[in-house]
Amino acid sequence: QGKQKKARKYAVMKRMISLRDERINEKNRAKARVKKKEDPSAIKEREVPQHPSCLFFQYNTQLGPPYHILVDTNFINFSIKAKLDLVQSMMDCLYAKCIPCITDCVMGEIEKLGQKYRVALRIAKDPRFERLPCMHKGTYADDCLVQRVTQHKCYIVATVDKELKRRIRKIPGVPIMYISRHRYNIERMPDDYGAPRF
């Protein structure tokens, strides 16, 4: 009878001894961790996130005419499809002066989309649009908008993207502008801002 061949087991690693093993020299051996007993009388410190002073629960005091509206790539695209004038429709929705703002990331995203989105690019380069510079690396527009809105509560976000809307809804005091039935609507905006409640 022949010798049975043993197949090597796939992805077998050599067993390593732990640093606390007794076979390792005393000076090289890792010390066993000693748990510190918690003092029940000690004052417990915990970090509470700092909330902006402009918020009174969900009411944002920084929002007021002229409204600064952060525009997303797909919002411009859907406005073109719905044949809506961006600035005029914003004013019709909010009954006040609106300043559409576009970040470098959104601009970069539109430029990357190429020839198909040339009309959107022309609209984005409109002098009525306020250009906001980005200091961070990369051109992922959604992260940029969420970060900007978290830091400064003076913006309304105009988007049609479901994922971005879901992320912005978690941030208190930030209204969302969207398109439905061939007109602009606003979500989560108290009556005191002078804007209609839908």
UniProtKB/TrEMBL annotation:
GO biological process: ribosomal small subunit biogenesis; rRNA processing
Any one GO cellular component localisation term in the record: small-subunit processome
Alphabetized InterPro entries for the sequence: Fcf1/UTP23, Fcf1_PIN, PIN-like_dom_sf, PIN_dom
Record carries keyword Lyase: no
SUPFAM superfamilies: PIN domain-like
Subcellular location, record wording: Nucleus, Nucleolus
Domain PIN: 67-166
Coiled-coil stretches noted in the UniProt entry, renumbered to this chain: none
Record keywords: Nucleus, Ribosome biogenesis, rRNA processing
Family of this protein: Belongs to the UTP23/FCF1 family. FCF1 subfamily.
Free-text function comment from the UniProt entry: Part of the small subunit (SSU) processome, first precursor of the small eukaryotic ribosomal subunit. During the assembly of the SSU processome in the nucleolus, many ribosome biogenesis factors, an RNA chaperone and ribosomal proteins associate with the nascent pre-rRNA and work in concert to generate RNA folding, modifications, rearrangements and cleavage as well as targeted degradation of pre-ribosomal RNA by the RNA exosome.
Subunit organization: Part of the small subunit (SSU) processome, composed of more than 70 proteins and the RNA chaperone small nucleolar RNA (snoRNA) U3.
Designated name of the protein: rRNA-processing protein FCF1 homolog
Taxon lineage: Eukaryota, Metazoa, Chordata, Craniata, Vertebrata
